[in-house]
Structures are given as structure tokens and as C-alpha cells.
Amino acid sequence: MKKELRRAVIAGNWKMNMTPSEASAAVEKTAELTAGKDGCDVILCVPFIDIPAAVEAAKGTNVKIGAQNVHFEEKGAYTGEISAKMLLEAGVEYVIIGHSERRQYFGETDTTVNLRTKAALAAGLKVILCLGEVKDERVNGITNEIVSMQTKLDLLGVSAEDMKNVIIAYEPVWAIGTGLTATPEQADETCGVIRAALAEIYGKELAEATTIQYGGSMNNANAAELLAKVNVDGGLIGGASLVPEKFDEIVTAAQAD
Ligand code: 13P
After folding, report:
1. Could you confirm whether 99 is annotated as catalytic?
2. Which pLDDT score, from 0 to 100, does residue 238 have?
3. What's the whole-model pTM score?
4. Res 257: pLDDT
5. How far is CA 121 from CA 95, 114, 211, 251, in A?
6. pLDDT at 27 over 50
7. From the CA atom positions of the chain, what is the Rg in Å?
8. Which of 46, 129, 236 to mutate to test the pocket of ligand 1 (most atoms within 8 A of CB)?
9. Which atom of ligand 1 is nearest to the CA of 219?
10. Within a 10 A sphere around the Cβ of 21, how many other Cβ atoms?
11. Ligand 1 pocket, CB under 6 A
């Protein structure tokens, strides 16, 4: 296991929180607090409407801005959707795809996640691809099969070259917004299973070089022990990313690894 081969990435997923003016202030504060902490990349994934304010506030700082979804068609009659080209022109660098809330509430499937991933990469966006098991799957002992299958289906047709622009976020659904966190051992083991699936598709070298984050109630109190695990290369943080001081503590914890 070669953790030193991988870039640590701490990303916030604001979900449906923050108005544009609030976004501007929160990005500025986050940038101020995390300035110079270059042991990891720092990303904030904001609602579409907040993108211009967030991009403006992040200019010249270490904070990179991401979106929370992207459509797979280039343009056309897709009411309410946003294309990769629109995001890029607005200054977005990253996009979250396949978040469990999209899968759970908005009918996303591995097929649409795969289409969105390929479209985003083809356009030049970097992708944070989310996957993870639900509680019943963990209880019934099929977590490894589920995350391996999601990894393979979501990345179907994605080239090894494009994988340089893919971060995987392992987010056990039962740990999201619940206050329940996977133990560091569970997070490490399942991120390792995802890495093994990547090795099956792309070979060991690429698998060892791919950043795999953990997400699900990661916060300033538990980040250090999760991030210390060899297969956990960063975090995708929901609730705690809304408070710059808490998010900064997670960024600080990532400097040590
Ligand atoms: P919480 O950190 O609020 O559990 O959310 C995790 C998440 O879904 C990040 O994408």
C-alpha cells in the first residue's frame, strides 16, 4: 500500500445549503483559514446558483470550486439540467457525480452515473464519483460485492488516461447525515475493496495512484483517525463543511497524512 503516491483531497459538499451571499462569505472564510495548508487539495462543491459567487471568492486562493451534479448531454431540451460546458465556463473544476442522495431521491442509477461521469470527463471536468452500500447491504454482508459492482459499472468505458481526473468517494449511505460514522477499520477495508476493483479494471499501479475519500459524518473530531488509514486518502464532508472553522480542522488533520 503506497499512500504517498496519492494526493489527499478534502472536499466539502454543501448540498442544498447557502445562498449566494452566504456562499461568498463561507468560501472567503474557508480560504483564509486553510491558506498555506497545501498537504491536501481543498474543494468546496456548491449549489449551481452559488457558483459565480463561490468562484469569485475563491480567486487567487487555494480553494477549488466544484458542482454537485452535471447532465450527460451537451445541450438540448432537458429542463432544469446543467451541462459540463456551462460549469466549465462558470469556472468550475470539479463535479460530484452519483451522490447517494441523487440515487435515493432523484432516480440516479449506475447507468446514469456512468453517462454523467463520461460526459464530465470528456468536457474536461474532474469527477468526484460517489458510491457506497445501504444499511441492509452491510448488515447482510454484501458490502464488498456492492461497492465492487458500483465501481465497475460507474466507470464502464472510462479510460485509464481519464482516471487521472477521477476521485472516488466511498460514502456508506447509512453514515450520511446520521451521525453514524464507519469505524476507521470499516472505512479502510471498504476503500481497499474499491481499490482492488480498480486494480482489476486498470491494474495495480493506477489503483494505487487513485485518491479514495471517505464520506459520512466525517467531522473535526473523527477526521484524524479516519485519514490516518492507509486506504483513506481524504474526505467528502457534508454538514461539517458548512462551518469553515470545522472544515479547516479537517484540512489541518489531512496535513499529517
Ligand atoms: P455528512 O458529512 O453530513 O454526513 O454528509 C456526507 C456526505 O454526504 C458528503 O457528500
Report:
1. yes
2. 97
3. 0.97
4. 63
5. 10, 11, 16, 26
6. yes
7. 17
8. 236
9. 2
10. 10
11. 13, 99, 171, 176-177, 215-218, 236-240
In the chain, % of residues over pLDDT 70 = 99
Contact 97, 69 (CB under 8 A): yes
Q: How far is the CA of 176 from the centre of ligand 1 (A)?
A: 5
Give the per-residue pLDDT at 2: 62
